[in-house]
Amino acid sequence: MEELDPIQQLKAHKTNRKWSKKTMKKLLLAIAVSSVAAGSASAATIYEKDGFTYKLNGDFQVQMRQAIGNDERTEVEYDDLELKNYVSYDVGNNLTAFGRLDFGFKDAAEDDKNGSNLEEAYVGLKYNLVSFSFGKQNYASDEFGIEEAYEIKTIDDDRFDDTGTDGDDTLRVDVELDNVYIAVSHEMDARDDNDGIDGEYYDVFVATDIAGLNLAAAYQVNNSAGTADSRDTYGVSASYDFGFMNLAADYSVTDDNNTDFETKQYNIAAVFGVASTTDVAVGMGNKNSDENGFKDITEWYANVTYKFPQAKNVSVFAEVANSDLEKNGKEVDMGMLAGLRLKF
Predict the structure, then answer these.
(1) pLDDT for res 9
(2) N or C: which end of the chain has fewer CB within 10 A?
C-alpha cells in the first residue's frame, strides 16, 4: 500500500468518514489540505523517482436524469468525465514545484462542440505550509458551500456559484496551518487579450475545525468589465458532526453596487450514515432578491449513495428533487436521477 504523507493521511481520514457522502465536500476538503498543491490521496501514482511524482485522478459519473421542470424528458447525462494530471518535483530545502492539467469531457459527450476540454492548467511552488500557483484554476471562494445535492436546477449552489468561481488568469495563495486553512486569489483583468474572463476578481476563504464544529467564511469582490462599481459577495457556513449525522448550513449574499439589488441564499443539509456502505442526504436551499418582480425560490432534495464494500471508489446513487418555481403560471414537476460513479 502506498505510504501517504501526514497531510494526505489527514485528507484520507476525513474523506472516509462513514457519515458523509462527500464529507461536506468543499469545507472539510479545504481544512484537510489544499488540493491546489497536493495530489489527491486516492490518486494513482503512475511514476515516482528521484523526487519526481506523477499522479492521475479520474472521475466518471453517468446518470439517467429527468430534471425539475415542465414536460422534461429522461436522458443520459454526463455529470463528470474528468482526468486530472498532477506532477511535482522535490527541489530541496522544503520547496516543491507542482503543476496540474485537468481535462473534462462531459461537454463532448453531450455533443457540445463549443465545450472546452481543458478545465484547469496551472503551476506553482510550495514551501512548508504555503503554496503559490498561477494559471487557469479555481478562485479561493470555490471552496465555499455545503449543499449535498447531485444536481441543483432552479437555484445556485450558493451566491459564489452565481458570480463566478474560476478563471484563466488566476493567482492564488494557500496557507495550511495546524487547524486553519486560508486561501486568497486574484483574477487579473486581462480583457485586452480578447479571450477568457473580462474584469477582475478578489477572493478570500478561511476555514477552521473546532472539536467537530467546522466553520468557514468567504468574500469576493468582482469588478466586471464595463461596470462602474463592484459586486460584493460574502458567505458564512458551519457544520457539526453529531456522530450519527452531520448537519450543515450556509448563508451567502451578493450586493450589486451597480443596481443596488441584493440577492441572498441559504442552504441546509444533513447527511446520515445508515450503514458503513450507505449514506442518505437531505437538504434544501432558498434564493431571494429585492430585484423588482423576483419571487423567492426554494428547492429541496433527498439522495442515497451506496459504495461497494470491495471498492469504495465505485458507487451507485439516486436522487429526487423539487422546487416551488412556477413557469408560465404552472408549478414545475419533480425531478429524479440515478447513476453510477467510478473514481480513482
Answers:
(1) 33
(2) N
